[in-house]
């Protein structure tokens, strides 16, 4: 993106103002939003507007607009929900979001999966494989491949399978692994840490919830079951996991057959010790099935829900301070509001 090239070499706040100019803001507290409304989709424009106002003005103390102006009310609500987020934090989030959220030109295309044999390493099958329909699996980018890990299929396997899609040849293949493979499952978290995959939890084919921890070394393709010290998260599936500074595995939420969680657990991957730190800020509601992505030290979480309602807010955790903030919230049947409720009784 042009904005990324223009601002990536600048320090804050200059980097923020360069990004704001690219988006269509003029740098003043009362900047017009016509340009961003034309350039971005409505939900993205609302997020950018709120972060811009928080960065320039600070917390929203403006009176609520008249109910006759739904657009102005939405803008006010989006800004208001940032509460006491620091101006510097709003600047960083604005830049990071703008670097990834220019959705206007995105289009879907179908990948042509080829049938020719693949040239592969010894750990990989020498011919293409058919990929059965699968749910609850994890997809991880690694080198020039996409790794599909675990998941539920109609004909269940006994152990976790790892399949690779070669982005250059357009073929799927099975990875041969060594050591004691974990039991087959879906709804687990799979996190790439260096050259290893860290797998936690999930639910097996008999709907038994799991709380085990496994590591797959991608260089040797060898499994290792880890018996970490401390108190691990309770058995769960459909949680989210992220890694911070290549050392700390952070796990949030998920569900059991009886409830959903909003707890936060951290595994020190060097000491192999679990902890449950105190969360700060606006702690999200319990949820499962949410999506997440890390941008720098910030962990964004969208959607999910429990058996009563979907989670409508976009939240972010600063993994250095373990402080939550609400980026934006939506109401009604809009794309960012989860319409799929958690399948178990939360």
TrEMBL record:
Protein name from the UniProt record: ACB domain-containing protein
Domain of life: Eukaryota
One GO BP annotation of this record: lipid transport
Record bears the keyword Ribosomal protein: no
Pfam families, A to Z: ACBP (PF00887), Kelch_KLHDC2_KLHL20_DRC7 (PF24681)
UniProt keyword terms in alphabetical order: Kelch repeat, Lipid-binding, Repeat
InterPro entries listed in its UniProt record: Acyl-CoA-binding_protein (IPR000582), Acyl-CoA-binding_sf (IPR035984), FERM/acyl-CoA-bd_prot_sf (IPR014352), Kelch-typ_b-propeller (IPR015915)
Protein family per UniProt: Belongs to the ACBP family.
GO MF annotation: an example: fatty-acyl-CoA binding
PROSITE patterns: ACB_2
The ACB domain, residue ranges: 1-107
GO cellular component labels: cytosol
Signal peptide residues on this chain, from the entry's feature table: none
Gene3D superfamilies, per the entry: 1.20.80.10, Kelch-type beta propeller
Source organism of the structure: Rubroshorea leprosula
């Amino acid at each position: 993106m042009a904005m990324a090239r223009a601002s990536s070499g600048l320090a804050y706040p200059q980097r923020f103002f360069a990004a704001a100019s690219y988006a269509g803001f003029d740098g003043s507290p009362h900047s017009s939003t016509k340009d961003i409304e034309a350039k971005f989709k409505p939900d993205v424009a609302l997020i950018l507007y709120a972060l811009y106002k928080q960065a320039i003005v600070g917390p929203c103390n403006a009176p609520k607009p008249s109910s006759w102006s739904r657009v102005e009310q939405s803008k006010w609500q989006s800004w208001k929900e940032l509460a006491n987020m620091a101006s510097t934090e709003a600047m960083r989030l604005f830049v990071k979001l703008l670097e990834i959220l220019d959705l206007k030109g995105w289009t879907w295309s179908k990948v042509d999966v080829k049938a020719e044999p693949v040239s592969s390493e010894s750990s990989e099958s020498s011919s293409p494989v058919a990929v059965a329909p699968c749910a609850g699996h994890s997809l991880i980018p690694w080198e020039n491949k996409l790794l599909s890990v675990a998941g539920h299929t109609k004909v269940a396997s006994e152990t976790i399978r790892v399949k690779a899609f070669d982005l250059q040849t357009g073929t799927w293949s099975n990875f041969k692994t060594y050591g004691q493979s974990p039991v087959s499952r879906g709804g687990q978290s799979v996190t790439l840490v260096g050259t290893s995959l860290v797998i936690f939890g999930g639910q097996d084919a008999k709907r038994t919830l799991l709380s085990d921890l496994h590591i797959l070394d991608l260089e040797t393709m060898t499994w290792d079951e880890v018996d970490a010290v401390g108190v691990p998260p309770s058995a769960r599936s459909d949680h989210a996991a992220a890694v911070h500074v290549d050392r700390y595995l952070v796990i949030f939420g998920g569900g059991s057959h009886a409830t959903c969680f909003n707890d936060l657990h951290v595994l020190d991957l060097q000491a192999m010790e679990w902890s449950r730190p105190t969360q700060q800020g606006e702690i999200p509601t319990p949820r499962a099935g949410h999506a997440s992505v890390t941008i720098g030290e910030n962990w964004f979480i969208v959607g999910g829900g429990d058996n009563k309602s979907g989670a409508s807010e976009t939240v972010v955790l600063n993994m250095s301070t373990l402080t939550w903030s609400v980026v934006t919230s939506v109401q009604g049947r809009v794309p960012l509001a989860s319409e799929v409720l958690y399948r178990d009784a939360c």
